[in-house]
Structure formats: structure tokens, C-alpha cells
Model the fold of this input.
Amino acid sequence: MSIPGMRRAAVGLTALAVAALGALATTPEQADARPKPVDVTLLALNDFHGNLEPPTGSSGTIAGQTAGGVEFLATHLAELRAAAKKKNTITVAAGDLIGASPLLSAAFHDEPTIEALSMAGLDYASVGNHEFDEGAAELLRIQNGGCHPVDGCGDGTPYRGAGFQYLSANAFKTETGRPLLPPYAIHKVQGVKVGFIGMTLEGTPEIVSQQGVAGLTFADEAVTANRYARELRSKGVETIVVLLHEGGAQASTGGINDCVGMTGPIVDIANRMDPSIDVVVSGHTHQAYNCDINGKLVTSASSFGRLVTDIDLKIDRRTGDVLSAGAENVVVTRDVAKDPKQTELINRYKTVLGPVAGRQVGETTQAITRSQETLFGTTMGESPLGNLIADAQLAATDDEQGAVAAFMNPGGVRADLDAGPVTYEEAFTVQPFANNLVTLDLTGAQLYCVLEQQFVTGRTLYPSATVGYVVDPAGTTGTAADPCAGTRVVRGSLTLGGTAVDTAATYRVTVNNFLAGGGDGFSALTAGTNLVTGMIDLDAFVAYLTAQSPVSAPTLDRIRTTAEVPAA
Done:
């Protein structure tokens, strides 16, 4: 039974909650005889992304405070449990705990993060899209333990697996139709049952490499949640929590505990969920919010371990229904004592990592950021760092594979480069996915189609310096079914190396394997032929930094508009 979510200050029994208890007691004796509700505290996080050490820059602040770092996160979790006065506390997460991680975790296939979160008391977690970065078999190894099949035991000791349970309700093995991992868990608290359903976003295959999701099928989030909610109720579970790696965003005026002008997939999903679902712990968008959507408490704790969502539930001891639900996003400040076990873990892995992380691989003359310029009123323009990466990818494949252009997806550029020396660790933080470069043949017509698809997906491909073209803001946008029908890119304006592209000619183009497989919605790239797989993108980036240092930010003049270049 779902009761509308209420803020922490307003937690209490509503009229509906009282009705759920039965007839209202009329005497003190009757009131005392009524069973007291069971108090349950959920402590929730999401999108940790292996940030064991405190994240830096804007990634390390929230609500005007420096925040994050697993040493501080573990202490805050312990303090929140203590503040609950030993109420029944369950710690949960909504996916992307690993993947796109800093080198300290990623160098060991994120085993340090799993170990750290297990020590911090995590109980259940949904599977995010980044849990699939290395494929289903690797995810099962992360859950169950065992040394990596290629790299072995990174720190010299056997990896024991997660001390918590990953839940994955809507990722099915295509061959058998069975879930890859348990779809839900039932947690008993003082005789009442709390059910947790875990899932990732249905669109995971569009944002993960095809190798990562090979053999898997992803189902609709709301339909799946409703299916397993019915199954839980058949087992006597009336308190149901969904751990969902999908989310939304509120207006910029909203604070970490607000829900102002909420938009995004989570709104539609929550509206389609069965009324029996009480709480949705969400993620993916790296936003903070605390909402009531369709009578459900819907929360998100931003990212990188900067927040913990403290959720209080009062559950009817007799019926198992939720009587009231309230939440508060709590900042993981750095003014508390560091958890000594987490400090020991970090130091142990830093010792094993040794001098690799600090090795200088290049130098920049200025800070080179991943921020995108504004193009006709939207942030769909070029990025200094994105352009630089595209240049590096072309340099790695021009002589080797005959490439004449390269394109980089914005989601693959994960951090800025500061001015001055660049270490291997900093380069890795910019490009942590270990994607292979793929060089393929596209006709000029197909190239135009790829560029038109940018306006269908809402994502800009960062071009190498050899590429130039003009965008018409008044042009039409194609459709998902036919992106080539768009007219945003002025025909005849596309040049490679200063020469106009012939729609009938064939050109060698380099992208990463994620894009080559149609990632980020760029299905037009799957039409490429004569594919040749090259080096890892990070290796190409490091080689370019080393060869070209000191490196400056590229000029943003590869994509222009008709306002800058009037029609002939």
C-alpha cells in the first residue's frame, strides 16, 4: 500500500495511515493496546563510480560544501545508523557503483570499490548501465568473486566478491529468458517483510558497448517493477522499494531536498508503477532530488558519494503496509573522522598501483575543459577537450588505417585537464572506458546521415581538425527511423582536409567501438564497412599528449552556423 511521500519534518501518521490501522482508538487503554509501527531506515546512494578518494573540482562539492570520499562516506553511514537509535537500518544503492571510475579503482577492475562498499555496510544494489561495461560474465565475477580471467589477482590476494547482493529484474538472458541476477530480495524486519526490486534503465544497450550487453535483453522498467511487485505481494510483502538506475532532473532553483519542475524518464516510470510500490530510489542522471510522484517517495543522491539519502519508513506491524515515508538527502561532509579501515584499503591499493599513476605523460599550456560551447541556443557545440581527443584518435589511425577523420562521443569525456603537467592518472580519468578505436568506411552520404543523427539524439560528435561543416538552425530534424531526412547540416558544406565531401565517394573514419556499435543512438555508424580495430583510446590519447606537448586547447571552429557562414 503506497502512502504519499512526506518530508522528514512532516513524518507522521496521516488520516489515511490511521484508517489503515483500523478503527481509531478512543481511550488511552485502547491506544496503548494498538501495535506500534515498525520503524525502518533506508540509507541510499547511487552513481558512486569508484570514487574512493574525495573527488576534486566541481565533482567534489554539493550544496556549497566539499563532499565525498569513501573514508568519510563510511563514517557518515555509521553515524546515521547510530542516530537511528538502532532502528532497523538497510543500506541500498541504485546502480553505477563501478565503471567510469578513477584509476585507483579501475586499474583493479573496480574490486577496491566493491570491497570498500561491502565494508561500509551496503546490503542491496541495483545494476546500473556501467556495471555492464566489461560484460555480463565480469559482472557475475564482481558479484561472486574470483580473480580476473586475464589480469589475475590485482593486489595478489583472491577477490572474494561483493558482500552485498546485486539485484537485476529487467536484464534477461536472451537465450533462456531468465534474469541475469536475482530480480528482488526480501528483507525481514521485526516480523514485517520489505521487498527490494533492482533494475537498470531499459535503454542500457544504447549507452553500453555491444560487447557489454551481448546475450542480454532489457525490459521496460515500470512493467517489470509491476510484475515483480505482484510476485512480492503473493509472498506476503506489502512494503516494496524499487532500486532503479534511471532518473530525472529538477529545475536549477531546486535544492538537494527539493522537487522543482521535475522532468525526465523517472516521472513517466513512477506514474506507470503500481500503487503497491512505496519508494523508488533512483539514479543515473547524477542529480539530487526528493519527490512525491504518483504517491511514491522518489529520491536520488546525486553522485560520487557526495550525498546519502536517509529514508524513514513507518510500517504497520499487522498488515505490513507503509504508513508514512519521509526522506532527507544528507551531505557527506569531510569534517568527520576518516574510517580507518577505508584508509587502509586506499593505501593498500595505492601501494600496489605504484608509480604508474604519477607518471607524467604530457603537458598542457592551459586548462582544457570538456565543456561544450553553445550552438544556436543549445549546448550542442564543440568541446576543447573533445576536439583534442578526436585529434588524438585521428593521429593514431591516419597512417595506420588511412583515416581522414575521427569523431568522439561527449559521454566518453569524463573530466577536464588542468594546466601544466599531465599524469597518466589524469589522462585515465579523462578516458576511463578502455574502448578500442575502430576505423571504417563510410560514403559521403552516410557521413551526412551520421551528422544529421546528432540532432535526433541530442548529442554532438566532437570532430577532428580535418572536419568542417555548417549547421542551419532553421533546418529540419530527421527522425529516429530516418535521421538522413534531416536538413540541419548544410549540403555541400562538409569538408575533410579542406576538400568538399563527395556523397558518392568512400572515406575512412575513426570512432571508438562504442560508437561503431551504434552507441548513444548513432545507428547510422553501424552501416560502416571494412572495420579494423585499433589501439585502446586511452593509449592513443596518452601517445598524442606525449608527442605533441605542450598541448593547447584547440580552436572551436570545426562546426559553424549559417550565421557565421552565410549561404552562397
